[in-house]
Amino acid sequence: MTANTKKITVTDIQKKKNKEPIVAITAYDALFAKIFDEAADIILVGDSLNMSFNNKQDTLSIGINEMIYHTNAVCAGAKQALIITDMPFGSYTNEDMALKNAVKIFKKTKADAVKLEGGLRVANTIKRLCDEGISVCGHIGLMPQFVRFEGGYSVKGRDPKTAQNLINDARALEAAGVFAIVLEGVVSDVAQAVSKSVNVPIIGIGSGNQVDGQILVWSDMLGFFDKFKPKFVKRYLDGANLIKNAVQNYADEVKSRAFPNEEFEYKN
Ligand code: KIV
């Protein structure tokens, strides 16, 4: 950390409600966490790593030990951003299990908070974690851990009943003690209503810009993940092609013996 960088805390994030938008991004290793650290308020060690980093179909098969491994890597790279670790599928099916696993994450890493998917259903669990001093970020709307249950990914809040349920979920999470809520895949006017209904920051992904911040999966926004591209993802870089071209360039130069030339040689 340089003299003028200061570690961002959950309190700093809470204070951003209705103010300057929060910038959040995922990272799974130290190399990229270090690069993202300056621009991001929050780095999420998302279980999306199972898809983009491990090339799996969904997030479900990742376990707590892998999340701990990647969180330690991210914490080694990022010195400023707040670090949130996703609690993986099946690691918080009851309050005791959730507490045991969240404590394990806190003891074995320097994560600042954990994230759980669910609204009212997990409110008691979240309260239990908060009561023990573990900061929690909620996650409602499209919840990737429900992909098999729901038979795919779909945008939420399209009718008045589901819109009201989202507001009820957000309020339940706020009452349980979350410091922020990720709101994924929600139609933008409903996302705005959810944001207005609570005093904790709403960090959107695919939920329009009338919320308190945005999060994107790094490999989506930098063009490394090409299995599918949801409508909400803006590609800020054509990463995969840039790297493919660079590596092809290297391969061509190795084959033609253009690399290494004298510049890259040791001489007596
Ligand atoms: O796992 C993840 O990367 C996430 C984001 C989609 C918010 O939960």
From TrEMBL:
Its EC number is 2.1.2.11. It comes from the Bacteria. Mg(2+) binds at D47, D86, E117. It is found in: Cytoplasm. The keyword Transferase applies. Pathway: Cofactor biosynthesis; (R)-pantothenate biosynthesis; (R)-pantoate from 3-methyl-2-oxobutanoate: step 1/2. Binds 1 Mg(2+) ion per subunit. It holds the Pfam family Pantoate_transf. GO terms for molecular function: 3-methyl-2-oxobutanoate hydroxymethyltransferase activity; magnesium ion binding. InterPro entries: Pantoate_hydroxy_MeTrfase (IPR003700), Pyrv/PenolPyrv_kinase-like_dom (IPR015813), Pyrv_kinase-like_dom_sf (IPR040442). SUPFAM superfamilies: Phosphoenolpyruvate/pyruvate domain. GO terms for biological process: pantothenate biosynthetic process. GO terms for cellular component: cytoplasm. 3-methyl-2-oxobutanoate binds at D47, S48, D86, K115. HAMAP family: PanB. Homodecamer; pentamer of dimers. Catalyzes the reversible reaction in which hydroxymethyl group from 5,10-methylenetetrahydrofolate is transferred onto alpha-ketoisovalerate to form ketopantoate. This is 3-methyl-2-oxobutanoate hydroxymethyltransferase. The gene is panB.
